[in-house]
Amino acid sequence: MSLHFTHDTLAQRVMLGAGRAAEHLRAEVERLGARRVMVISSARGLVQAREVAAEIDVHTWHTDIAMHVPVEVAERARAVAATNDIDLLVAVGGGSAIGLAKAVSLRSAVPSIAVPTTYAGSEATNVWGLTEGGRKTTGTDDRVLPVTVIYDSRLTLTLPVALSVASGLNGLAHCVDSLWAPRADPLNAALAGEGARALAAGLPRIVQDPSDITGRDLALYGAYLAAVSFASAGAGLHHKLCHILGGTFGLPHAQTHAIILPHVLAFNAPHAPAAERRLAAALEADSAVAGLERLYELLDAPRSLDAPRSLAELGFPAAGIPTVVEQALAALPARNPREVTAANLSALLRRALEPPRPVERSP
Ligand code: NAD
């Protein structure tokens, strides 16, 4: 391992405590001296958002959100914040709510607090995303990084088990991709390894008992570490592919990550021995691929949870493969353990299109 690197650590307060979100939010609003708070959540998540905000004065409630943050949705939220002279945004929800707060911060510099209710990890990155005309654009800007993240595993108890698993695998994908992303370094590799260990320990507990707070705590802790390592390492092949599948084909975020992860791991792992060893250790297996396969079996996603395990099940057409390949080749990360070509990328996507089958090492 080379100990020559440049590493960015993002400045952010993180608070984790089951059942303590309302108390932590009050303390943070006071610390920041905010007077006009806008809470962003989905309409469905409003009851939960009201519980989280029970101890603060909320000036504006905003529930006009959509996945992958369409520009018009972002513009409406920014206008509402400006009209109401908002000085702090509080996003309660998954990556869609947090992503909308980020989009408002990007245009207005109003800071945000994130109260995540999934394991997507957007709260710990300075990455924003916006979708326009069927194409998703992302960028990095420190203004979008929430000043504080408040984790409360009780808020995730309502997340259905299948979605908890898919979202947790989205977190695991952050760990995996961080190990070979353009700015991979020993610090984010250490975080990614611990994140993978925590997620691999937490998710099976959630499947066994969705109300298991320790499992939920482990998953949030792992999701945070995963996102920190991802924020520092950058997006690797896996994220480039999922980003196109989500942005251009409208596939659901967490499920797409869960489906693509074993295929990218099988594609890259034989060419990335250090990443392979780190993941194998985190997953307590002889190899990373075997460890991931065992984890998927343990989660039993395709059968008992009825979670999709192929792109076809998400409605992705085989005819879409050339588009994904073309867009992916144009956006490939600066380095990848294995050379990526139109032929081997098409083959990877064809495998991901197939109905579930055991993970195999790609040739
Ligand atoms: P999401 O926020 O859209 O949530 C998925 C579904 O789960 C929604 O229907 C939501 O209402 C529901 N939900 C959320 N929390 C719940 C709870 N506790 N109980 C019951 N239902 C709940 O999806 P996501 O996977 O969290 O985030 C995906 C979005 O985040 C994508 O747009 C993705 O691009 C973005 N993202 C961005 C980054 C980044 O660094 N910028 C990182 C990860 C994800």
Automatic annotation (TrEMBL):
Keywords assigned by UniProt, alphabetized: NAD, Oxidoreductase
Enzyme class name: oxidoreductase
Domain Alcohol dehydrogenase iron-type/glycerol dehydrogenase GldA: 12-152
Cross-referenced Gene3D superfamilies: 3.40.50.1970, Dehydroquinate synthase-like - alpha domain
GO molecular function list: maleylacetate reductase activity
The protein's Enzyme Commission number: 1.3.1.32
Pfam (any one): ADH_Fe_C
Domain Fe-containing alcohol dehydrogenase-like C-terminal: start-end pairs: 165-352
Stated family: Belongs to the iron-containing alcohol dehydrogenase family.
Name of protein: Maleylacetate reductase
Naturally occurring in which organism (per UniProt): Corynebacterium nasicanis
